[in-house]
What we know:
By secondary structure, the protein is mostly helical.
Amino acid sequence: xxxxxxxxxxxxxxxxxxxxxxxxxxxxxxxxxxxxxxxxxxxxxxxxxxxxxxxxxxxxxxxxxxxxxxxxxxxxxxxxxxxxxxxxxxxxxxxxxxxxxxxxxxxxxxxxxxxxxxxxxxxxxxxxxxxxxxxxxxxxxxxxxxxxxxxxxxxxxxxxxxxxxxxxxxxxxxxxxxxxxxxxxxxxxxxxxxxxxxxxxxxxxxxxxxxxxxxxxxxxxxxxxxxxxxxxxxxxxxxxxxxxxxxxxxxxxxxxxxxxxxxxxxxxxxxxxxxxxxxxxxxxxxxxxxxxxxxxxxxxxxxxxxxxxxxxxxxxxxxxxxxxxxxxxxxxxxxxxxxxxxxxxxxxxxxxxxxxxxxxxxxxxxxxxxxxxxxxxxxxxxxxxxxxxxxxxxxxxxxxxxxxxxxxxxxxxxxxxxxxxxxxxxxxxxxxxxxxxxxxxxxxxxxxxxxxxxxxxxxxxxxxxxxxxxxxxxxxxxxxxxxxxxxxxxxxxxxxxxxxxxxxxxxxxxxxxxxxxxxxxxxxxxxxxxxxxxxxxxxxxxxxxxxxxxxxxxxxxxxxxxxxxxxxxxxxxxxxxxxxxxxxxxxxxxxxxxxxxxxxxxxxxxxxxxxxxxxxxxxxxxxxxxxxxxxxxxxxxxxxxxxxxxxxxxxxxxxxxxxxxxxxxxxxxxxxxxxxxxxxxxxxxxxxxxxxxxxxxxxxxxxxxxxxxxxxxxxxxxxxxxxxxxxxxxxxxxxxxxxxxxxxxxxxxxxxxxx
Length: 755
């Protein structure tokens, strides 16, 4: 199956409406429809409460809470409908009437077993006669339970959350085991799930409110029930469109990004089983909370569900743009009562973490298609979620969905992660609205490791196919904070002269036009560097998986080299940042492949190596194994060695801009710098394996240089013997021959050790 076919419907919403452009959204109905959620007792506020409390208490006594359940005495439709009006009102009571609300929940959870193969004995007969009609009414009434009440204390909110967990668990069981649910009931259930998520999650995050406590749970149930519906009653296009539109307004919630990532990865595993033979390597990844996809999904359903879920949250790159994430009705309501810009709301401080989780999720999908193991992602733990588990420990399901990933395989200690979690938690829930520059950075909270030892499977798809699917997101994520996204034409001189004249004049800038970039570029880059580095690593793995003779579209080459060039930049403080490290760790073979035009990256790669290899103690903010980093860098350096020896006259063209009338530089001009770097790296190397590699590289350099010099001398001897009488090698004719024969092909080893 050609993965490129999926890209035909992958259109931006603003350029054609996307795959659901011809369908109407149900968002307005989900948000504003109240006819099935209001009881007639709301017309009688003074006496309605007393009526509801007395009726539900008697009904609850019949369902087996304190005594054995007995058959219901509600014999007619009118009896049941009247009682349901009372229960609907009871679910909307203030939370201080906890006993009445609890009884209402127990009654409806008992009655919803009418959807099970064997209903409870206490279910009224009218419900058994028409289960779908009454189930839809009960599902609509239960929405009242999830509506946040203002001014309630933390303990009261906890008790509300417990009741919500009970309802969610009941609906999960009904969706999984029911064989009588009609198409209308499935739609009502999915609309209900969308409605409660919209009610709880659309507003900016407030610490310890019911939305904060139920966030992970309601999202996990939404996605799980939706997947079950895909197998039993595939959702209609309007429902898919509504899911996408609403999920886009919940993207400030970290649980959404984490759950979406897990669902997409689980569906990808199923998709690989559809597309490839059983010999395709099973994707391995560090995650104990994997998602179980229903086994009754057909191949076509898996394909359709995978692609639709993949695009549920829109572009993951939007998570690096608070101005976009905050353009929702709930955030704009906040702006109307506050002097602070909605993009500076404290709940958006988690966006750098959400961006990293989303891009890591995309990277895991790429790894699955390549047949390689995904690397671990160590994220900060959120202490407040350990104090208030969701759901409570005695009700926790088999799967839990947390923003925090599994235990690390190395790097940061647990105490360091908890400390960072405290910092992020406090900054996210602060009541004040700090400036944009104070947004939390997650540099140092993740670990970079190398996947250079893994070889992609021979059955892997073509690079073009992967780039059709994920390229747009990865390329945009890889240039976050560089200024390229807003105006790529600002960079006019990316080839400074210091790249050719040695390391003494390096300034870390790509040109004078860098000063014209936005003033906020550096702060944006610092906050989102972890996600950007993850995107660069994934792109490197895609391009390094290219097969011999495989064609990659020129536009992908151009975009890859552009983001690679900016990722290899050295900042003004001469710090080694995450993007540069990520590139070096994942592109050890990039110069060993037949990538078209890769020689234009040689000077930038060499400059990065000159910053890493000669230094014994690098100033690095993230967790990385220094021996692995140096080993990956040495691999790149060794692949550079033959270039100036065998292709000394090969010119290197510019990616952007031009040199004007100046001649283009050649690979031969880099020979001295490569030789110096090899020797300087050998002087500070302490790892035996790395030292062995460097010595081998030095041996190759000496042998190759000697061989080329001997070959040049042999040519000169043959030429001298063929000179006519009276002509010598020192005559003007012989000097002209040496010039025309390119004297640069007689290299000399300049062992310059001093830096």
